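--- STAGE predict ---
source: upstream dedup step, 1 unique chain passed
mode: sequence only
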Amino acid sequence: MNAFIVDYFEWVKGSLGDPSFSKRVSSGRLLREMEVAHQTVHECVLRIHGRLSYAEATITLKDEQEFYALPGNFRRFKALQQRTNGDPNQIAAAWNILQDFERAPGIKILSGQQGFKMQPVPTLTENVDAVLSYQTRPIIMHYGIAREVGDGFIDFENNPAAVQGEVVTTDEYYKGSLIGIVSADVGVGQIVECVNYSGAGNRAILRHNFTLTPTGTVVYEIRPILPRPYHKLIALTAAITFAAERRDFEGRKALISEWRELWRAAKNYFGDESVGDTPRFRDVEKSGSIDPYELHNIFY
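--- STAGE serialize ---
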């Protein structure tokens, strides 16, 4: 079993059909295009699967503090709640997003990088922990050799080679992401969700223990949101970009045809009730009123 990034490199270079051009494209450029392609495909999938990729983070509200940071993988706000004893069914307080003209208590999102501000500014006698529920965006993928694996955790490689992708050391960055075991003496093929992450020690806390704790030299990966084989859509999206750059219009046309065929299969997968789709998104997509190609102007 290969890590996705390894397959991605092979797919893109093989799709180009030009050894000289493939040699001129650096691994850094390939990885940058992978991030863009991952984001593009992710947005397409969101159109047919509305409950994709959610996570929660704790926001500590403080007296007279107006501005707060958002998690590094934040995409869209869902809720901000103060929960009694952490119980999501017991909401002591809740804050919604305010429009520019509204003055009621709530929050205003500035941007994913700038964070949000509370309105009015909190006046508190002690700190209050609130739970932010949010939709995640695609994160920077990588693979590496785990430093340690145990019950409910895995420690990422500190400094993987450049071709393996980048490890981000921002706390909570990998929340909601999927971690797959690529190679080990036992436990290969398992996929678990990260529910917390400490950047200082590069340690990911898992939603549940591995069924079989991987042993030996454990190669892990941060997986794309798409399962096999649909994750190839990311490589095809990047390959189409490179084909346009080379002005290889026939090659680009063939890649678009392959993309569309795989996308039709992916729509069937994500449109199935068993993956938690909502009828609203599924019915719109099946009606043909949304074409992810035209919607995102990917291939012009």
